[in-house]
Specification:
- The complex is a heterodimer.
- Chain A is mainly β.
- In chain A, 0% of the residues lie in helices and 52% in strands.
- By secondary structure, chain B is mostly beta strands.
- Chain B has strands at 10-14, 19-24, 32-38, 45-51, 56-58, 62-67, 72-77, 86-93, 102-103, 107-112.
- In chain B, strands 1, 3, 4, 8, 9 and 10 form a six-stranded mixed β-sheet that branches.
- In chain B, a hairpin with a 6-residue loop joins strand 3 and strand 4.
- The chains are: A mainly beta, B mainly beta.
- Chains A and B meet through strand 4, strand 5, strand 9 and strand 10 of A and strand 3, strand 4, strand 8 and strand 9 of B.
Amino acid sequence: KAGVTQTPRYLIKTRGQQVTLSCSPISGHRSVSWYQQTPGQGLQFLFEYFSETQRNKGNFPGRFSGRQFSNSRSEMNVSTLELGDSALYLCASRIGLAGAQETQYFGPGTRLLVL
Amino acid sequence: GESVGLHLPTLSVQEGDNSIINCAYSNSASDYFIWYKQESGKGPQFIIDIRSNMDKRQGQRVTVLLNKTVKHLSLQIAATQPGDSAVYFCAENSYNAGNMLTFGGGTRLMVKP
């Protein structure tokens, strides 16, 4: 079974631009979560999507948004990029059983550099 | 591409020795804990998990110990190999938090041949 895939793997943008990152979960997984990883803050939760609905949201500004499609693929968008948004953006998927704490499997990440 | 911080605590061990990586968690309501391994340029890879109704769980060459009294988690790797060199993260989750994982800062494990 293929793992979580993320595209693109690397991106360079300039301040003020916006960016969209894509994530395809493991086949059969319906929940997708996004995390930001930086040297200063470590790994931080952004949001989780299940059945096209945002289930949970971390403490990030409204410039960070996401969505999920009917095939469980997810995208996240960052508008008005700032230098501090430079990070590795990780997507994780799980099966999504209700009320279950399940292992989350991570993709390779998208490395975003904001200049 | 480096994906982790420059000032991580580092554990350096000799190949073949056992490694112990420690983690303190903060939320007493956390009831599910996971260890991930992250190699350079890759996403975190699941190693082992443990629920709060257990204090020990063993996998292949790895053991996780949970001490809820002092909110401490440890990962033991037996017969450490060069391929074990990576950054190791503990993550905690509480049922009330949905599936939001809270990660520790990470420990870099370096295995000397």
